[in-house]
Amino acid sequence: MNGRDSLLDDGIEIDWPRVLLLALVLTVLVALGAVAATSSAAFGLYNPSWDGAADLRQDVADDPTIESHLVRDTARYEEWPANETVAFVIAPDDPYEGEDAERVREFVANGGTLVVLENFDETGNDLLADVGAEARTDGQLLRDERHHYRGPVMPVATGTENHTLTAGVDQLTLNYATALEPGNATVLVATSDFAYLGPEENELDEQDDLQSYPVATVENVSDGQVIVVGDPSITINSMYDEPDNAAFVRGLYRSADVSHVVFDQSHGGEVPPLAAVILTVRDSTLVQLLVGAIGIGLVATLSRIHPRSVFSLVRARLPARFQPSRKSTVGRDLPGLTDAERAAYLRKRHPDWDEERIRRVIKALNSPRSEEEPDE
């Protein structure tokens, strides 16, 4: 018995090879959908891997008091009240120049809160200078031989200052961080007294200057404020839930005055294709109207088409070997024939059937109900 001989109760034969092919096609489509909806970029908000920030994005999205926005164009900073908005810039790839830098500066000047998370790249420092902040990242690797997570390059910053932004935060668990040069900024979190700066390959010796280094600061700039963190890794999935990174990040935007959180990706990694399409539709009224019109047209068109008519049309256009085999078709193919003629016809039409099966089919066709429900 081959794959097409298995019969369902309604008389339709199952073609198992084609069922498996369909399952494979569906699996491939699901995989392609996942690729289109996710990113592999470090610090990517749609990257669910260890180095992505998908958990942070979801955490903000789950907060019912907050509206989250992903920005790919700095012009969108003007869409929300600056004094009710916190904007995150996480390890930008490209420098903010010209109009982009000016828009971010105006956002801060109008009362917005800008959070810059950077460690070794000067892009973050350039943005801080553009908006008028004094804090800067040092750019050297921060290490601590005594207070660390999985090694000296993952120091645990235990010096948490008493501030509204650090309520409920006792420490930060860092990962390849750098220290900050605060200027006149207020230090929020600092390392222990056993931290030092230098390349990873350098070994600690008596000449190294052990001291406490700032790793997070806040300062007022015009009517707004700028928060600087010397480690963007506190936002990635593998570090976000380490003590007390998530609590610290939430404290930066969970305030009675904040109703919007902006993730500025205008100078960061690319957004996945599917997410880009969704964002384009959501951000453009014209595109929304166009998509709505197309949707209404499709619904109106499909409402006029009977599903059975579509199925019959598709089935009629399939090659004969792809046509579904139903038991009721046998009776319609053999009107007015003798049993011998029917047997000859069935042997030619179904060479894989044995004589016993052919006799049963002929017997079923001769029964009173064969016109509607043949047994075979």
Helix/strand layout:
Elements lengths: L15 H22 L16 H8 L5 E5 L13 E6 L7 H12 L3 E5 L4 H10 L4 E9 L11 E2 L1 E2 L11 E2 L4 E4 L4 E5 L4 E3 L16 E8 L2 E6 L7 H4 L4 H9 L6 E5 L8 H11 L1 H19 L3 H11 L9 H7 L5 H11 L5 H12 L10
Parallel strand pairs: 1-13, 2-3, 2-13, 3-12
Antiparallel strand pairs: 4-8, 4-10, 5-7, 6-9, 9-11, 11-12
Describe this protein's structure.
The chain is an alpha/beta fold. It folds into four domains: 1-37, no CATH class; 54-283, Rossmann fold (3-Layer(aba) Sandwich); 289-320; 326-376, no CATH class. Helices cover 36% and strands 16% of the residues. It has helices at residues 16-37, 54-61, 98-109, 122-131, 237-240, 245-253, 273-283, 285-303, 307-317, 327-333, 339-349, 355-366, and strands spanning 67-71, 85-90, 113-117, 136-144, 156-157, 159-160, 172-173, 178-181, 186-190, 195-197, 214-221, 224-229, 260-264. It has an eight-stranded mixed β-sheet, sandwiched between helices. A three-stranded antiparallel β-sheet has the order 8-4-10. Strand 2 (85-90), helix 3 (98-109) and strand 3 form a beta-alpha-beta unit. Helix 11 (339-349) crosses helix 12. It holds the Pfam family DUF4350. Residues 46-252 form the DUF4350 domain. It comes from Natribaculum luteum.
* Count of helical regions: 12
Question: How confident is the prediction overall: mean pLDDT?
Answer: 82
Low-pLDDT windows of residues: 1-11, 370-376
From the spread of the alpha carbons, the general shape counts as: elongated
Number of strands: 13
Which architecture of the largest domain does the CATH hierarchy give at level 2?
3-Layer(aba) Sandwich
In the CATH hierarchy, the third-tier topology of the largest domain is known as Rossmann fold
The strand order across the widest sheet is 1-13-2-3-12-11-9-6
**Largest sheet, described in full?**
8 strands, mixed
State which percent range the strand residues make up.
15-25%
Total domain modules: 4
Q: What is the CATH class name of the largest domain?
A: Alpha Beta
The radius of gyration computed from the alpha-carbon positions, rounded to a whole number of angstroms, is: 34 Å
Helix content: 25-40%
Order of helices and strands: HHEEHEHEEEEEEEEEHHEHHHHHH
Gap between N and C termini = 15 Å
Structural category: alpha/beta
